[in-house]
């Protein structure tokens, strides 16, 4: 069984499809792969763009979903409501609440290509890992080099001594969906092993 089985993997991604067909394909593949591994895919429950493609990927393999959406988006008919079974969709009042639940629900994180909202979520996961608010892995789905600029910026902030150099080790640039999922699996195995060693030493 995959170490991701039963784990919640929060997937951030654009509410638009983006300029490249590979972005949508990667989002669909991420959903399908997570379903095959027995993971629960958590996202913002949108009915457009990469968010929607990830949901469709999960559905294609009969996988499990959890969605977090604001009431405003539901009222604007921007939620993929029919995808979620009873109890799988959480409707919240604010974007802050939505982001908080997407974060707290995740045992691991994948960032697909996206815009400023996706960037904000990804940066926050990384920032909070530095602050030791969590120890969960983050894979950047670097299709067509999408996250090269993000990686360069993080390294720039390290070079300019605004960011702890440890930040550079707290995420992986993964060129394919398969590589994203494989990275999360190895990180979860490593963290479980470390926890067992720590428990044995107590």
Mind explaining what this structure looks like?
- Strand 5 (108-111), helix 5 and strand 6 (138-141) form a beta-alpha-beta unit.
- Helix 1 packs parallel to helix 2 (49-60) and helix 1 (21-36) packs across helix 7.
- It contains 7 helices and 7 strands; from the N terminus they run E-H-E-H-E-H-E-H-E-H-E-H-E-H.
- The chain is globular.
- The chain is of the alpha/beta class and 202 residues long.
- The protein has helices spanning 21-36, 49-60, 71-75, 95-105, 116-130, 148-159, 177-201; strands at residues 8-12, 40-43, 64-70, 89-92, 108-111, 138-141, 172-174.
- A 7-stranded parallel β-sheet has the order 4-3-2-1-5-6-7, with helices on both faces.
- Helix content is 48%, strand content 15%.
Q: In short, what is this structure?
A:
This protein is α/β, with parallel strands linked by helices.
List the helices and strands and how they pair.
Layout: E1 8-12, H1 21-36, E2 40-43, H2 49-60, E3 64-70, H3 71-75, E4 89-92, H4 95-105, E5 108-111, H5 116-130, E6 138-141, H6 148-159, E7 172-174, H7 177-201
Parallel strand pairs: 1-2, 1-5, 2-3, 3-4, 5-6, 6-7
Helix pairs in contact: 1-2, 1-7
Class from secondary-structure proportions? alpha/beta
Low-confidence stretches: none
Task: Report the biggest beta sheet as strand number plus sense, adding barrel if it closes.
Answer: 7 strands, parallel
Strand order of the largest sheet: 4-3-2-1-5-6-7
Q: What form results from the Cα inertia axes?
A: globular
Following the backbone from N to C, one meets helices and strands in this order, namely: EHEHEHEHEHEHEH
Could you give the distance between the termini?
A: 29 Å
- Beta content comes to 15-25%
Count of alpha and pi helical runs: 7
Give the helix level as a range of percent: 40-55%
